[in-house]
Amino acid sequence: MLRYFSIAGLILSGILLYLNTRSFRSILYLGVFYFTISLYGFSHYVLLYSKSALLVSCFFVNATFTFYLIGPMLYWYIRSTLTDNAGWKKSDFWHLIPLLVYLVSALPYIFSPWSYKVDIASSIVNDPGFMGTFQATILSEIFSNTAVYLSRPVLVLGYSIMALVLFIRFIRKKKYQGFSRGSYI
Question: For residue 129, what pLDDT is reported?
Fold first, then answer.
């Protein structure tokens, strides 16, 4: 089921991006958000259930850096919707630091030979617990694998809280300016 929902999400986010980005710039954030969530789900399906060394070698570490976009895309979409401004600020580049840190730390694995990736993928297919012990990135040498794996959901939680705070501030501000429940946000 995870596979089908993820594929459907990838297709729908592609359609959303293709049809609406020109008209509504903030939809870019929403489309990339849905795309990365769907890719995240499909990646989990591939790594845990697919039993395909080919797919595992394609998804293990190679696409993982994109999952660090989930939180910032959520935050930027909420902010752009509430402010009617989809533009970037100079300070928005700071949100990409986790993605860049993970990408740089994963470059040795990303550029490793295909045969090496297939060997690692075969080990994962035979024992999914191998992912917890294999140090795929330089970050895994500094932090535990658990900390590296948990960094993505923790960041998404942090960004969700930031987006919620933005929304609550918006509601409070509009409440004092005569905002009513039936009004368009």
Answer: 87
SS3 6: helix
Residues of the chain with pLDDT under 50: 185
The model's pTM is 0.85
Query: CA–CA distance from 37 to each of 9, 34, 86, 161, 164 (Å)?
Result: 8, 5, 21, 18, 19
* Domain edges within the chain: 2-174
CA distances in angstroms from 3 to 24, 33, 44, 59, 138, listed in the order given: 29, 18, 9, 14, 30
What sign has the CA pseudo-torsion 139, 153, 58, 47?
positive
* Average pLDDT value for the chain: 88
List Cα–Cα distances, 153 to 91, 145, 150, 179, in angstroms: 22, 14, 6, 34
